[in-house]
Structure formats: C-alpha cells, structure tokens
Amino acid sequence: MALNHLFFPAPLFLLSLLVIAFASGDEYSPNQDLETPNIEKEDLLSTIIGIQGLVYCKSGPKLIPLEGAVARITCLAVDKHGFEAAPFSFLSEACDPKGYFFATLSPSEVEDNRKLKECRAFLELSPSETCNVPTDVNKGISGALLGSYRLLSDKKMKLYTVGPFFFTPEPKSISNGY
C-alpha cells in the first residue's frame, strides 16, 4: 500500500512536464506580429513608420467609403537636448475608392535631429460637400494614439493601424424642448 503512494506522484509530475513543454512551444498567435513600443527605450522613428486606416461617411445606418478623404498625423517631438519641440504634422495620401488611406514618414523627413515621442492620427478633410462633419468615433477628432504596430521586415517599416474614422452629413442638433 505504501508503494502505491510513491508511484502516484511520478505520472502526475511527468504529465505536468509535458504540459509545460507544449505550452512553451512556438505556436503562432494572431497577435504575435504586434508589438507595443516602449517609447522610453526606443525612438519611435528608428525606422520608417506607416499609418493606415479607413474613412467612411456614416449616413444613418449606411457606411460609405469616403474616397479622397485625408488623415493628419501629428507627433510630439523633443530636440537633441530632450526639450519639447514644436509638434510635427504630415498628411496621408487621399483615400482610395474603398476609403483606405496610407501615410509614411521616414527618419530623413524629421528636421533638426528631433525625436518623435508620441503620434496621433486625426480626420483632416472630407472631399464631400454633403458628408463633411468629422466625428470622434475611434478618436477621429481627439486623435487616435499610434500604439501597437506590425513590423514589416522586408520594407523596414513599423505599420500602425487606426480607425476606422467617420464623417457624417450634419452635426447632431440638440433639442432643448423649446
């Protein structure tokens, strides 16, 4: 009877070793390509950055891709001595017929050895006369922080995704009951 108590923990121990071995395997995870940058440890602009997103016109329940819309990317910067410098802004290319925009920034485009510390994407322009009121859905007005990125090794690019952003036909009116 005492002999059974000695052999019972051995299979349990082996099973736990197998579970640990399988759990530490190199299985693919959908979020494996995403990295959250540590801004204090690395420069945001140590390589080319790309920003992509979608812009729609939201009219009632309809979402219509907004061809020709433009996003603005604004980055806080510090100079070579670590003092805050003027923000740096640039525009995306106009959205394609599916509402997709793309913007890039390379280290050579940043002047005076400034370092970018935090970048945000904003709605900038709607080409539509009937759907041109920006909304703050997904921070289209207040600015969507560039957080996680996907590293495109072949293009030496950190690719950030924001949005989707939305314009509406008219501002929502607030009725006071008068």
Automatic annotation (TrEMBL):
Residues 1-25 form the signal peptide. GO terms for biological process: response to ethylene. Pfam families: Pollen_Ole_e_1. GO terms for cellular component: cell periphery. Keywords: Signal. It comes from the Eukaryota. This is Proline-rich protein 3. It comes from Quercus lobata (Valley oak). The lineage of its organism: Eukaryota, Viridiplantae, Streptophyta, Embryophyta, Tracheophyta.
